[in-house]
Write a structure and sequence with these properties.
single chain; about 260 residues; mainly alpha; globular
Length: about 260
């Protein structure tokens, strides 16, 4: 089992490596996508600077907290879309019968599918996240914690993408539901947790797990708590298990697109 896990990990990194190499064939476009994504994220700093001129804190967050929240959201999004960008395109692949080529490969179908492409602009998101942590909370310890919670958050985000994307096995035009739920996660992840109350806040820790992806990780970065870290690790394990369960249950219902395409 351990040997199989090592092999799958090796295949995963090789897949990502070749995906990035393929995107780098046009060096100018590759670099511009990254640079403009960093700049795009940075423009929102102006928005928050103006807001904090009016109030000293928003939802219990000061300016540096909000910027680290943005950095964490960017790095989490970046890791998931660099390694597993196709997880967020599952509805398209399912609805158009494009899983055929993955079913004949001698490796894990789900991992093969979600790692079959990369989003180069997501590299800019990841870089932006580290720029923020280096500026506002630099230390080797904070870098390690930031990296750990970013990876855990990206695992939960990816698994959530697989779960809602796999609903297209059962639901006609499930892509609309999937897109809306993933957009909700990304949008809510950039606003201070304290501004949400009651049912909305509960929803952000359950139906739309922004709390587990971004809010709780932020609290760990700002004030490390081992119990909170264990909660995130446990959530990551549960979400991954659910992602595999839902995807493979849905795969039984999959209708081939009869596409005679092979992947190497």
């Amino acid at each position: 089992m351990l040997t199989a896990a090592k092999q799958q990990t090796k295949v995963l990194f090789l897949s990502v490596k070749y995906n990035i190499m393929r995107e780098m064939t046009n060096h100018v476009t590759f670099l511009m996508n990254i640079i403009f994504m960093v700049l795009n994220n940075a423009t929102f700093i102006v928005q928050w600077l103006l807001l904090f001129q009016l109030k000293s804190d928003i939802g219990g967050y000061v300016l540096s907290d909000v910027l680290i929240l943005w950095g964490l959201a960017a790095s989490t999004f970046g890791i998931s879309h660099i390694f597993f960008s196709q997880a967020f395109k599952l509805p398209y692949l399912i609805m158009n019968g494009k899983l055929d080529s993955f079913l004949v490969q001698p490796k894990n179908v789900l991992l093969a599918v979600i790692s079959s492409g990369t989003n180069t602009s997501a590299i800019g998101d990841l870089i932006y996240g580290y720029i923020i942590i280096l500026i506002f909370r630099f230390s080797l310890y904070n870098l390690l914690i930031f990296t750990l919670v970013s990876i855990l958050g990206s695992i939960i985000l990816t698994a959530f993408g697989v779960i809602v994307g796999s609903l297209s096995f059962w639901i006609i035009r499930g892509d609309i539901l999937s897109q809306n739920l993933i957009s909700a996660v990304i949008n809510f992840a950039t606003y201070p947790e304290g501004i949400f109350k009651g049912v909305v806040r509960l929803t952000l820790y359950t139906v739309v797990p922004v709390g587990l992806i971004n809010y709780l990780p932020l609290q760990i970065v700002l004030n490390f708590n081992f119990t909170s870290l264990l909660i995130i690790i446990g959530a990551a394990i549960i979400f991954v298990a659910l992602a595999f369960l839902v995807f493979y249950r849905g795969l039984r219902r999959y209708s081939s697109g009869n596409l005679m395409i092979s992947r190497i």
